[in-house]
Amino acid sequence: MTLSAMLLWMLLAPLVGAVAIAVSPRHLAKHIGLASSLVVLFLSIVFAVQFPAWTTGAFVPDTNVFPDGVVSLTGVTFTLGVDSVSLLLILLTTFLTPLALWGSYTAIEGREREFYGWFLTLLSAMLLAFMARDVIAFYVGYEFTIVPMLFLIAIFGGDDRKYASLKFFVFTFVGSVITLAALVYVASKSAEATKVWDFSLSALQAHAKTLSPKEQFWVFVALMVGFCVKVPFFPVHTWLPLAHTQAPTAGSVILAGTLLKLGTYGVYRIALPMAPNAAVETVGFLAILCVIAVVAISLVCCAQTDMKKLVAYSSVAHMGVCMLGMLSLNPLGMNGSILYMINHGLSTGALFLCIGFMYERYHTKDMDQLSGLAKVMPIWAFFVVFFTMTSVGLPGLNGFVSEFLCLMGAFAATTHTDSGFPGLLGPKWMIVAGVGSLIFGAVYMLYMVGRVVWGPLKAPGHGDDHGHGAVAAVGHAGGHGAGQGAASGAGSSSTTAAGPKHDDSAAGGHGHRLPTDLSAREIAILAPLAVICLVIGIHPYPLLDVITPSTKATLAGYPEAVRDFDATRESRGELATAPALPADAPTTPAATDASTALGSNLGVIAR
Amino acid sequence: MTHLATLFPSLPSALAGDGDAHGTAHRAAEGAAAAATWIGGATAHPEYSWAGWILLLPLLSAVFCFLCGAFRVKNKLPALVTIAALGSAFGLVLTLYLKYDPTHASGPMTVHLFDWIRVVWGEKPGQSFVADWSLYIDGLTLFWMLFVTGLGTLIAIFASEYMESDVGGNYCRFFGAVGIFLFAMGSLVMGGNLALLYLGWEGVGVASYLLIGYYYGKPTAVAAAKKAFVMNRVGDLGLLVGIYLTWRHFGSIDYATIFKACSETIANGSHGGDWTKGLIPYFLMLGAFGKSAQIPLFTWLPDAMEGPTPVSALIHAATMVTAGVYLIARLYPLFLLHPHALHTVAWIGGLTAFLAATIGMMQYDMKRVFAYSTVSQLGYMFLGLGVGTTFGACYHVFTHAFFKALLFLASGAVMHGFAGQLDIRKISGLRNVPGFKIVAWTMLIGCLWLSALPFTAAFFSKDTILLVAMTDESHGNRILAWLGLLTALMTAYYTFRVWFRVCGGETAYQPGDEAHGHDDHGHDADHGHGHGHSHGHAADAHGFHPHAPRFAINGVLLLLAVGAILAGLPGLIEFLKMGPNWAAEMIAASSATIGVPNLTEGLAGGHAEHAHHATVLGMDGHTAMFLLSTVAGFGGIAIAAYYHLVRRRAAETLKQALLANPLIGWLPRALENKWYVDELYDALFRYPIVVFGGHVLAWIDRYILDGGIINGIARIPAWIGRLFQPLYNGLLQGYAITMVGGIGLILAWIVYVWMKGGI
Fold first, then answer.
1. Mutation site, B68, B118, B121, B134, interface A, largest A CB count within 10 A
2. Does A480 fall in a domain?
């Protein structure tokens, strides 16, 4: 099988699986779902083994699947190609999906066909977004992830699922339409100039550099708006905690693990190479938002009582660190940022799985109702503490490496007035404030662990001993029907017995008897995640090694002082001269009206 | 050079001083000559890669223990495996020590194990960030590792008996965390770069978190664990920024490279770089203060006594808390980057020593007294580092490790025997209780050593520090020395207050209430006692029989007592002018002396003889210090003997009299309440930031940001959505149709543009 065919089959296999699920008996749905996702995992591993461009930063195979006629008519191609970073994210996706599906075996009862069918569609859409080299193909994948996720939340979600799914939809849809508008604008300008429609990413990125600085700026802003909603970036993050709280476990895993990464991936792959000068101008402002996200959202985490909501908010803070690394626009921070995407996917996905497994037993995620579960679920407790430690960035586990590199990169990109070092991210104290996330991260995660895992045992009955309905009365208490204002219904400890929402499943109570502690299946789901977290933590060099060529390629269009910065320049007494912009760039990038409004500190670079 | 000389008028006197008087003057001079080769001369020694097993063995034993827990092993296998792994690691360290010649001209050794973090984007020094799994082995490393692994093994043996009532899942968890701790401590000490140090730094933090919270059924234990972790994180933040700044200025975080650059800096007298270079030591010392429980981050350590006693002995007395001292000793050259960095360290150390001692005098919980004494002794170590005697500081770490571990384990044995009783008012005359003879008398050795009476190990180490501080007239170091002497008096008092109360006097005891015991298994019913006799939740003393320690506990106590005595041997040999101090030789062959011998060389003459001729109270410095600390030690013991052995009632009378006095009545209250520092921190940080800030921000996030602004904006598309109301209601597919319609519209627009463009 050629590489290109392999990519195509990775897209098709889940869809084939979805169709098979649709025509098969209900009880087979989960097995077909798992099998299809495993096929995709297998294909992606084979692809990764055969992948020739791990260390070159090139896109392989980068071939168009559409017939030429379609291309010449519309300019839209179906070019698939991956570089090392895309492939790593594809591997993350194909690795997390089977685990998420397997983890849903007992959690999803009723309407399984829809669940597993939509999940496979989601997988296909995500893979398309990561593989596409054509912006329309990318956009289709990017946009189409919304639909299955919408159904997963709206059908299988908690009490507030309708509001959550609406919010999720409106946010991400509006955001991505703005992104599309920017892409189409660049394409149309390019078409005006060349008289040929061409939506390929490389062509658009090449053309974007010929736009006027003002146009570049607005294109960059529009692209960022869309991607930042997905990341999610402060202050447009408010859909995420709600979506996570309401989504079923597997949905949360994929949402945190992969869907958010589409945002950062979009920034990395499309926005940053598209308009380097605009990026250099804007990152200072964006960094402020990052730091606010990190600090303020970390504090917000401390005030949560719902476990999933806490982890969801922590995602916002973590993605702030990830973006801070990426916006530092130097290879160090960017490498860290890419690695952060993978690590965050692994550890947060695993945490959601842990919470989900616990939820299946106690039907509550409310920390006020749970305490000391280590007593009855020691193995579960081990995994929760383990993944908490990866999440708070314990060195030796994966989270640390990426967090460390992101922060180092961000530090390195701060202003240095004495030497004229182009500080992209503003003053150092700001980054120090961002590093404060280290402390707050520990505070809120350990707060959760201290409440739920440790302490005297307290739980609303054991899942084993009670019928579904009886226990669910506790679990599903809360603000159902409270309307839009009560976004966090599950967080309140109201005694309203709203009853199980899974209308189709409630009939016979739980068909599955779960053991008190984790079952072999659940251990088998969490153990590989833990092992990978440990391996990446101890030996991340192979990953960093393959990420570097890609980040260098992404930064190719940037001024040399940014791209090839040298941290010790001042120490060696080589004060920076004003770095020159690349020859093909406009000569007055900072002369836009908008950039002054943003108070960017690019003056240094522009000189 | 002149710059450094003004920085450190004290240094030459310090080093030459104690070297000279203690009979190792020749070594200081030799050191000066050899220093240049030492500083940058780290060489790669791939043949020592087996040293990696020193780290790996504890880690493997930790994994094994957790697996035992998963497979529900209900015997002492985890303990045996851990003891074997730690013992082997100690054996390897010993082998390494025997193979390694600290005076070897080739300097420190580096061993590259494998790549860890490595980002390279250019050829220049600042265009890469490399942190590998590599080891840096010099005298300081071996010195530290010897007692870390040695004590670790002993304490694991102790714990195998002490924790036996928990055999099962918790037993596995305990030894798993001990394994993690030894792995992390090994990385911290042996690691060849700052990132690996940071790994160890956080790793010991998490091991400490897991072990403080071992009795997780108790909310206080959980809170203490969290407090320790978070406070340490505050320090880690400083360490992280320090690492960044180091990388920024040296282009590397490898010790070998940094020290080479530092040696050149010292040789050329030029610092280069900008003012941020001077911040490096301050950020690093913040990390050290966090880990070593110094002002302002000291309040977690006393609370950490919630953990099982072997943990208190190993982690919170002997090894982990000395990591801060290690950090400063290891990175001593970086602490010369700013003129006041070391003075700050000295003052923080001296003040912490004093403050902790004041609190220690008024505590009734045996373990807490020893915890405050640990904070206080750590303060002495920082004082030593600050005034320039890295040898004194490191030697004090070494001696302190033995006697403090001994004291903790002895108090653990008491708790073990008396159902968790720790209140020194409720146990008396232990020396006459059958089976507790060894405990009582080894505890006496620990107390004598902690009081630093003449010819005990701590006498040699602590007095080195105080002597150097005393003979240095700059920056108020002499004030610190007097404060240190006063602290020594208080130390002797509170130490013997414990011993006279617990071991002296008539035999009388009340067992602790296991259900609320400090260190026992009150959290749930199925942690019954594995002991032959059942004393259960004995609240009355009548049916209570103290549970005498058996072989493992007594054996370890005796071994530690012997160790504490032997730890003083190097000092004694030096004192009797029979040869050089072994510890001084080890420290001299390390980065802890970088910069120091050079100064001696540069300022040869007057300064080198400074300490020798320095007079204190009109006497020779050494004689004066000998007399002063003898007086302080015996004075403290005498006061303790009067109030707590001879006339115990007088102590109570005195306390009541003090409390009744309106002028100084607040003092005992403040001391008993630990100067209200916890309350202050809660009021300043915890409530405003975490509680208030968190809730207010959460409210803003939910009602203003989301409810107001975002939903306001979202109302526009929602209003549009209302046009599709039929689709929304009941038909979820409506969303999809809306979206597909949206994509269709966009495609239509593309086509429109395309046609308009006429392409």
1. B121
2. yes
Q: pLDDT digits over B461-507, tens only?
A: 888 888 888 877 676 778 888 888 899 999 999 999 888 888 887 88
Contacts of A346 (CB under 8 A, 6+ apart): A92, A96, A257, A390, A398, A529, A532, A533, A536
Q: Which neighbouring-strand residues pair with B44?
A: B110
Q: Which chain A residues are Cβ-neighbours of B272 within 8 angstroms?
A: 571-573
Task: Show Cβ contacts of residue B570 under 8 Å, excluding neighbours closer than 6 positions.
Answer: B395, B460, B581, B582, B583, B584
Asked if the interface predicted TM-score (ipTM) of this complex is over 0.90, the answer is no
* B contact test, residue of A297, A484, A570 with most B CBs within 10 A: A570
CA distance B136 to B142: 10
Best mutation target, A153, A446, A575, to test chain B (most B CBs within 10 A): A446
Torsions phi, psi of A82, nearest 5? Answer: -130, 150
CA distance B690 to chain A (A): 6
CA distance A2 to chain B (A): 32
Does the residue A604 lie in any domain? Answer: no
Q: Domain boundaries in chain B?
A: 1-37, 38-526+545-624, 673-721, 724-759
Whether residues A303 and B698 touch (CB distance < 8 A) is answered with yes
Distance in angstroms (rounded) separating the CA atoms of residues A521 and B577: 69
Residue B277: its chain A contacts at CB < 8 A?
A: 571
pLDDT category, B338, cuts 50, 70, 90? confident
Residue of B nearest to A537 (CA): B116
Q: Which residues contact B652 (CB under 8 A, 6 or more apart)?
A: none
Contact flag B690-A302 (C-beta cutoff 8 Å): yes
Those residues with Cβ within 8 angstroms of residue A526's Cβ, 6 or more apart along the chain or in another chain: A350, A353, A354, A383, A518
- Residue A55 domain flag: no
Contact A570, A419 (CB under 8 A): yes
Q: CB A443 to CB B705 under 8 A?
A: no
Nearest CA of chain B to the CA of A594: how many Å?
Answer: 23
Residue of B249, B274, B523, B735 to mutate, interface with A, max A Cβ within 10 Å: B735
Q: What domain range includes position A499?
A: 298-573
> Is A131 part of any domain?
no
- Model pLDDT, residue A202: 85
Chain B: residue nearest A451 by CA? B222
Bigger pLDDT: B284 or B36?
B284
Distance CA B667, CA B673 (A): 10
H helix runs in B131-218, sequence order: 139-162, 169-190, 194-212
Q: What are phi and psi of A604, to 5 degrees?
A: -60, -45
Chain B residues in contact with A405 by the CB 8 A cut-off are 117, 119, 129
Return the pLDDT at A134: 86
pLDDT tens track for B151-201: 899 889 888 888 888 887 788 889 999 999 999 999 999 988 999 999 999
How far is the C-alpha of B663 from the C-alpha of B614, rounded, in Å? 40
CA distance B656 to B634: 26
Nearest to A394 among B206, B216, B746 (CB): B206
Secondary structure (H, E, C), A534-562: HHHHHCCHHHHHHHHHHHHHHHHHCCHHH
Query: Cα(B385)–Cα(B127) distance, rounded to whole angstroms?
Result: 34
Say how many CB pairs under 8 Å bridge A and B: 258
Confidence of residue B61 (pLDDT cuts 50, 70, 90): very high
Residue bearing the bigger pLDDT, B690 or B149: B149
Q: How many domains does chain A have?
A: 1
Asked if A383 contacts A354 with a C-beta cutoff of 8 angstroms, the reply is: yes
